[in-house]
Amino acid sequence: MRLIKKARRILKLRGAVDLGSSPVLSSLIRLSVPSIAMVLFHTLFNLVDTIFISWLGESHMVAISYTFPVQIGVFAILEGVGNGVTALVGRRLGEGDHELAQKTATAGLAFAYTLCLLWIPFLFPGPSNAFFRMLGATDPVTLRQAWLYNMWIPPMLVLISFSYVVNSIFRCQGNTMVPLYFFLIANGLNFILDPVFIFAFGWGMTGAAAATFTGRFVGTFYLIKKLRESSEIKLSFFTRPRLGMMRIWGGITAIGLPVTLTTGSVAFGMGTVNKILSTTYGNIAVAGWMVGLRIEDLAFNTLMGINDALVPFLAFNYGRRSLERMRRGISSSFLISGVITVAIGLALAFVPRPIINLFRPTEEVAAVAIQSIRITIAGYPMVIYSVLYNALFIATGYSSYGLVIQVCRSMLLRVPAVWLLAGMVSIHWIWLFQPISFAGAAALTWLFSWILLKKLRKDLNISLPDKNVSDGQEG
Questions:
Q1: What does the pLDDT read at residue 3?
Q2: Domain coverage including residue 450
Q3: Torsion-angle region of residue 472: left (phi > 0), alpha (psi -120 to 50) or beta?
Q4: Is the pLDDT of residue 466 over 50?
Q5: 281 band by pLDDT with thresholds 50, 70 and 90
Q6: Same domain flag for 278 and 224
Q7: Which of 44, 176, 432, 440 is the Cys-Cys partner for 34 at CB 3.0 to 4.6 Å?
Q8: 284-312 core/surface letters (b: 16 or more CB in 10 A; e: else)
Q9: Burial of 97 (C-beta count, 10 Å sphere; 0-12/13-18/19+)
């Protein structure tokens, strides 16, 4: 009974978490559970969205595949801004400087709005067609469908930018429930309106984009309401850029740009791996790996949810100059990740068929996907290690370390490993390139975390026992 009561207390999700004094493990569980739910549901809704579009026909499915680089670019930039705002605002709140935290949040929103201008050309068919022709699209129907979908991105970006920054602000205040509820509102409406707009109204690709826009639009009103009711930091939707914000923009860019480039390197590395797999083993290998990656997202996205909860926790306590609490936060995150992420990974390894069958693959593709999942799982502990310490790099302003690690993993380790293995092993063992690249990234993570923690001890003037704090163990 005592264990049950304790679990209920830990999982009580109402109210904000005190990032500076609440018990570390329970705080991170309360922060992580909504974040994990958010990314898992996001994966589900993206999958459903793709399925609805695929029902329109092959040309629509091809068109949506060409829009992925644009979407990756959009979210890569906004993730950079969001992480920069989270790190800086969390740090200022930890220092007790609420005025500077307010200025940083306001400047961050204005910065995100300014970056929206980059996608203005996609409003027009000429620039849109030119871009997709560079990616290899030539069919007029495909080009038109891609434009009809992407023309919604510029106006939608304002809403997405607002939600990214505001959700970061709430996480910095120990509140992950508001971002979760926003997500449920926005994506729930998208899920409901997709079949209505696409099929009932006959809007096709435009209907899919319109449903997403409508969900974001309604969700924005929820965020505005919660900002007024339960946020110490106030933001106006109609925030304008000002000249005096430039210094803060520089600080956000210093942290966020490496995050943005990290996402870009992942996309580039995956494209290169696809080419090697296709050339050596044919489309079966590419299709099997893509199915495997989609399914592995269920495990990896739980880890990203924990990462989203850990960054503001670390940034806040970095501002408080509490290195010991930061260390315990990382240790607690290892425990949470080990229980949740590894458990999901093992379940997918032993019982993959029910999920794989949703994609209706051929037997050959299914066998390849299962093998890729099972071999990749061997590298999960190393992925957890790298991702959680990347949260430390972002929170303390050293996100460039994470960029170097990711570039090395995606291009300098994974691509050569695929190339070498492709000439030596069968299709069933080529997937060893995944744990090999994970191991190399983990080694680099250990090196950078050792350097950073040594620097933090000196900067924060804290004398700690001579112990290897990079091993994820609580000191």
A1: 42
A2: 255-475
A3: left
A4: no
A5: confident
A6: no
A7: 176
A8: bbbbbbbbbebbbbbbbbbbbbbbbbbbb
A9: middle
